[in-house]
Amino acid sequence: MNICLLGYGKMGREIESFGTERGHRFPLVIDENNQEKLNMQNLKDIDVVIDFSSPLSAPDQILFCLESKVPVVSGTTGWSNRLKEIEARCKQLEGTFFYASNFSVGVNIFFYINRILAAIMNRFKTYSVSLKEVHHIHKLDAPSGTAITLAEQIIENHENFHQWTLDKDEKSGIIKIEAVREGEVKGFHAVKYESDIDEIMISHSARSRKGFALGALLAAEFVQGKTGCYGMQDLLKL
Predict the structure, then answer these.
(1) Domain 2-103+210-236, architecture per CATH
(2) I need a surface site. Which of 3, 26, 82, 150 has the fewest CB within 10 A?
(3) How far is residue 94's CA from residue 97's CA, in Å, rounded to a whole number?
(4) What are the residue boundaries of the structural domains of the chain, listed by start?
């Protein structure tokens, strides 16, 4: 496939490297220094756009690509307030849009386990729940999109909880998320249920960015010939 990269940071470079190994080509790479190259002429031979850019630029660039009739796979987080708008526009255009807050296969198995555990814990109301996420110092948004997804899954499956917060004070019905930025940590997430008797914890720790790159490339391959809005649950059949 001919792939356009939106964003050329560490993830963009990892996708390019791994994608080249898989036989894909990257004739168009857009970053903050050449935004003007994102135009319909340059997109005409592109099979799919993979977006790992910034929350400020991603929504409008994704819309432009969809309006240019090019499928988009996006892993940029921090702009979820516009996600429904873009999904609605994609359906209007009969376009193709694949979004995930985390493209790691392991993390999406973790999401699946999190949903099941939350539904089970809904029967045991004496347990409180909290989340912790740790990432490298270059990550701009906090909490991570993955942590927000985990919290939203718990809210959907556990009637005791109705929102999440970064505040340190514990409040009834609110899931506390601790967001830490240190060193070059690739990504760590943990969900902990606690009672006076014991605690239950599930966690995921990323060892390299290659897992995220693989997931994004699998998504790009998956959307070929399809229309509509998709996510990792569709790709992995979870």
Answers:
(1) 3-Layer(aba) Sandwich (3.40)
(2) 82
(3) 10
(4) 2-103+210-236, 105-205
Q: Which two tokens stand for residue 133?
A: 């996420």
SS3 for 80?
helix
Quick check: helix, strand or coil at residue 122?
coil
Q: 185-223 as b/e, with b when 16 or more CB fall inside 10 Å?
A: bbbbbbbebeeeeeeeeeebebeebebbbbbbbbbbbbb
What Å distances lie between residue 179 and 10, 46, 58, 202, 237, CA to CA?
21, 37, 23, 17, 30
Give me the amino acid identity at 83. L
∠ CA 185-110-6, nearest 5°, is 55
Written as one string, the DSSP assignment of 158-220 is -TT--EEE--SS--TTEEEEEEEE-TT---EEEEEEE-SS-EEEEEEE---THHHHHHHHHHH
Residue 215 has pLDDT above 90, yes or no: yes
* pLDDT grade for 202, boundaries at 50, 70 and 90: very high
CA distance 6 to 30: 5
Contact yes or no for 14/209 (Cβ under 8 A)? yes
User: What is the second-level CATH architecture of the domain 105-205?
Assistant: 2-Layer Sandwich (3.30)
Cis omega before residue 143 (within 30°)? yes
> How far apart are alpha carbons 149 and 36 in whole angstroms?
33
Q: What percent of the chain stands above pLDDT 70? A: 100
Rg (Cα) of the chain, in Å, rounded?
19
What span, in angstroms and rounded, lies between the C-alpha atoms of 12 and 35? 15
The structure tokens 């760590």 sit at: 188
Residues designated catalytic: 135, 139
